[in-house]
Each structure stands twice: as C-alpha cells, then as structure tokens.
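Weekly sync, protein design subgroup
Attendees: M.S., D.O., the rotation student, P.L. (late)

Item 1: inverse folding check
M.S. brought a backbone from last month's batch and wanted to see whether the design step gives back something sensible before we order anything. D.O. pointed out we never logged the input encoding, so this time it goes straight into the notes. Structure tokens as presented (299 positions):
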C-alpha cells in the first residue's frame, strides 16, 4: 500500500506564538496535495517546509474562524502570481461560498481557476484509490471534520500466478477487477490467487466540542489528528468555546479504536510546557503524540 504523508505547517491555536503558526496541515498522496485549513502565514510555512504551494489540488476548510482561514488571501494571490495551472478545489461547510466571495474581494483580479463547494455529512469525493468524507462538528458555527480513506486494494499473488503459468494477458486484468476466469479449461477464482492490501484512514477533527459524531467519523482511524486546545483543568473554558481538551481527544481515539492520536492546535498558554497536554492524553490513550510546526508523519 502506498504511503500518505502529513506535513504540519501550523500547529497553534487562535493566537500564534514564536514556535507555532496558525493551523494548517498538508496531506500528500500520489499527485494529490490536500490542504486542511489555511491559517495566517501558511504560504510562508510552505517555504520553510520546502514545498511548492503550486502543487496544491484541494483545500478543505473545517470552519471560517480567522485562525483557520486568514492565510487564504495571501496564498491565492501567490498562486496567481506563480501562474498556478490547475483548478483549485475548495470545500467547506454551509456558508463557504459566501465567505469565499469575501476573501476573493480582497484580491484584485484573481487569475486562477477556483471551484468552491459547500458540503454536508457523507462522502464528497470518491476516486479509484481514495474517499474524502465529512461530518458536522459542534463549534458554534458550521464546522466539518474530515476523513481521508485510502481504499483496500486487491493484489494478485505473483507466485500463485506463476505456478498456474498464467500469461501476461487480459485475463490478469479480469482477475484484478475481481472476476473469476477460465484458463486451460479450468476455473480460477479471484480469492485463490489474490490478497487484500488493507487501506488506511486519516481523520481530522479541528475545533469542536465533544460530540457523538466525532466518535463516528474517527472510528477505525489509523491516524486521528485532533485539536487539544485545553487541558482538563480548563474544562469550563473548553465547553464555553466549544473546544476539546487533551483528555477528550484521547477519549475519542480510544472509543473509536484509532491506532494513533496526533495532538495539534495548541494554546499559547502551554507554549512553555506542552507536556501538560501530551501527558494528559497519554494517560487515557498511550499511543499519543504532540506535533510541532513542520513535523511530518508518513503512514
């Protein structure tokens, strides 16, 4: 199975710090480069990461609070000045078209092609290799969580094909497509000459109060990327501002049977002691890590 790469361009909360930029995450798979949120300064973070923003194919907006979208005007202007050739597809919750029109009004003569889509719960992209899925979260304004699902893939067992002396012919294509075949008068079943390469699931929950839908979209995730804006000692503030504590993020990972939890969206209050957040999560879900700007993960 091919790898998925995540680059954490920004891992901070509402107020950026010297160490943490506003939130933005790049998911790369084959020729897809999908940006999840675009906080202020994201285009500069691309420079630090050594990645060209002109490789972008899609942008997923979780919600339209400033710390998640104020990097859009600058990024779009840079793409226009860099003669971006593709069609940039932007997805977000209800109200995204109206909000994007405000962003576009800030840019004089946007010369790139942009396709803006408002999406609700469910699968909104279904390609041969992967799915993109959204789910509504609770944050006071329309807000989405997203999952990137790399589909299971059928692989033909070369040793078994060689043993059967199957030639390189359209018969192999039929097997790859899940069809049984007949060769030399003998029926060959797909299940006898193939195996399943298990897919992968990456889930992004950025800014939300704890809710049942968070558990559902995170179910079975190989990697759950979650905000952890507060420690449980500030549970009152977390509830007031509809954010997750590190403990709640860990509870989602545990109940959803996720394999690994990645904590991000760290508040400036933990700048000098981020282990408060990490240790709280690890007490409930051992396989938890806390990322910093420009970290990358390959799964």
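Designed sequence read out in the meeting:
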């Amino acid at each position: 199975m091919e790898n998925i790469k995540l680059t954490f361009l920004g891992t901070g909360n509402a107020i950026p710090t010297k160490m943490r930029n506003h939130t933005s995450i790049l998911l790369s798979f084959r020729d897809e480069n999908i940006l999840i949120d675009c906080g202020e300064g994201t285009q500069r973070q691309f420079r630090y990461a050594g990645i060209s923003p002109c490789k972008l194919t899609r942008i997923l907006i979780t919600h339209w609070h400033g710390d998640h979208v104020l990097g859009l005007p600058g990024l779009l202007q840079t793409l226009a000045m860099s003669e971006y050739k593709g069609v940039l597809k932007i997805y977000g919750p209800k109200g995204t078209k109206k909000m994007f029109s405000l962003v576009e009004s800030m840019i004089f003569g946007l010369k790139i092609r942009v396709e803006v889509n408002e999406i609700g719960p469910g699968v909104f992209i279904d390609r041969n290799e992967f799915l993109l899925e959204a789910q509504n979260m609770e944050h006071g304004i329309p807000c989405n969580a997203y999952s990137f699902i790399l589909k299971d893939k059928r692989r033909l067992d070369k040793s078994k094909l060689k043993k059967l002396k199957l030639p390189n012919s359209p018969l192999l294509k039929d097997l790859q497509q899940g069809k049984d075949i007949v060769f030399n008068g003998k029926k060959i079943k797909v299940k006898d000459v193939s195996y399943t390469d298990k897919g992968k699931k990456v889930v992004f929950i950025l800014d939300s109060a704890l809710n049942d839908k968070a558990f559902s979209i995170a179910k079975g995730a190989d990697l759950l990327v979650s905000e952890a804006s507060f420690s449980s000692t500030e549970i009152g503030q977390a509830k007031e501002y509809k954010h997750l504590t590190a403990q709640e993020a860990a509870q989602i990972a545990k109940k959803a049977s996720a394999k690994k939890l990645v904590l991000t969206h760290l508040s400036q209050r933990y700048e000098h002691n981020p282990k408060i957040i990490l240790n709280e999560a690890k007490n409930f879900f051992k396989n938890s890590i806390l990322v910093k700007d420009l970290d990358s993960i390959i799964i």
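Discussion: The domain at 5-152+199-298 is CATH 3.60.15.10 (Metallo-beta-lactamase; Chain A). The longest helix spans residues 72-81.
Action: P.L. to compare against the previous round before Friday.
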